[in-house]
Amino acid sequence: MNAISSLLVLCCLILPVTACTPFSGAGINSQTGLSGTRQPKPDPFTASDSSAGSTSPPAPAFTTFGSRPAAWRAVIDGPLLQIELSAVELVTLTAERFNDKRGINVIATDYTVKQQNRRRKNKVNLTINRKPCVNAQGAYDLSAILFYKKRKYTGCAVAGTSGTEH
Predict the structure, then answer these.
(1) How many domains does the chain have?
(2) Which parts of this chain are annotated as the region Disordered (predicted)?
(3) CB of 151 within 8 A of CB of 69?
């Protein structure tokens, strides 16, 4: 009976220690995976995560803007998408970001849009492409398309959040 008690105490002491010990080669700063092969460095445009509680580096912010069909501006910073269609219409939504080799696709749902006295959800889609864009203010490396309230807005994009008008 004494041997069983000693074994039980030993197991209770070993379990927490082994549960907190990382696998060899899988440390936080390790560039190698469990297979031991070296992983390529991530592309900052496509490899970050904007979801809450993520341990990945924060996703880069982008400012998009244009004048077709009317002046507009949208900023994606982390999980927040802020859309400005006029001086009085500014909406902030929680969005999901999906990255691919062509660019970034941001999807959100706006529940504030009302139609016929009923609350209705409105799908919002912002796409930032790695295609050059030219407007009256200059040339940019990125282009943008915003679908909001059943309208398509086209324009350009820049990395970061910009407080200036484009």
Answers:
(1) 1
(2) 31-60
(3) yes
